[in-house]
Amino acid sequence: MNEAAPEANTKQSGRAHGIGRAVERPFGHVVSRLRSPRSPRRPRLWFEILLIALSYWLYSLVRNAVPEQKAAALANADWLWSVERFLGIAVEQSVNHAVNSVSWLIVSMNYYYATLHFIVTISVLVWLFRRHPGRYAAARLALFATTAVALVGYYLYPLAPPRLMNGGNFIDTVLVHQTWGSMASGNFKNMSNQYAAMPSMHIGWSLWCGLTIFALASAPWARVLGLLYPTVTLMVIVSTANHFWLDAVGGVACLAFGYAVSYAWYGSLPHRLPKRIAPKTGRRPRLSALSAQPREAAATRH
């Protein structure tokens, strides 16, 4: 009797330990999944189209719904202009007047500003989706996080562009040359928030495109174009008097935040992730192995 009792206690403690481990496994699995970097999933075309359309609609809605706060935006523009003069980088007015004197150049820049911002960004997203599906989700998250934090900037810091400054003597090149496409001048000015210049998403998006192309393109000429694109965009936003230099700095800061969010979620920068997503392995071998364990245990007992 005394020998049987310890054996029974051992069996009971073993069962309790087994039950405890069975209970701990699901929670341990959840905790480990939460702590480990997320694995990119294969992008689905219909979902990505819906997501991009919805995101841009929300972006436009929120950006344009921000109170214009004209007085504050003009005051902020005067302050920013004084800071640039103190730093010795307030050359936007000279650049604006110099480029405006070359009609074909400034007209080209007006159309560049109005169109490529969307065309190039969407083209890079499509290229990533088709050629780099394993990196697509991480790169897309960086872009979306960049845009989201920019909306916070628009709300907290209304800023008039140089062309709308009081006494700034800047030229609104869209109005002067009657070019089409700007949502900030002419017939479209009532459809867009006039005082959302900080940060510049023309810089944030173009730099995202440029870095993505430079990091992933195999052709040298494509990598060079990737670096040139945000550089030319910087010249365009200044020449057309749509942004200050420091607006571009704000765009770079937002992009840095976007990449930080993507890195925190996936545990890596987009270009360091695998190009392709490995197919999921089936779970049948694991199930058959688990089912074989009781049979092996029964055979051992017999």
From TrEMBL:
It is found in: Membrane. CDD domains: PAP2_Aur1_like. The keyword Magnesium does not apply. InterPro entries: Aur1/Ipt1, IPC_Synthase-Related. Residues 277-286 have a biased composition (Basic residues). Residues 277-302 are annotated as: Disordered. The keyword ATP-binding does not apply. Residues 79-260 form the Inositolphosphotransferase Aur1/Ipt1 domain. This is Phosphatase PAP2 family protein. The lineage of its organism: Bacteria, Bacillati, Actinomycetota, Actinomycetes, Kitasatosporales.
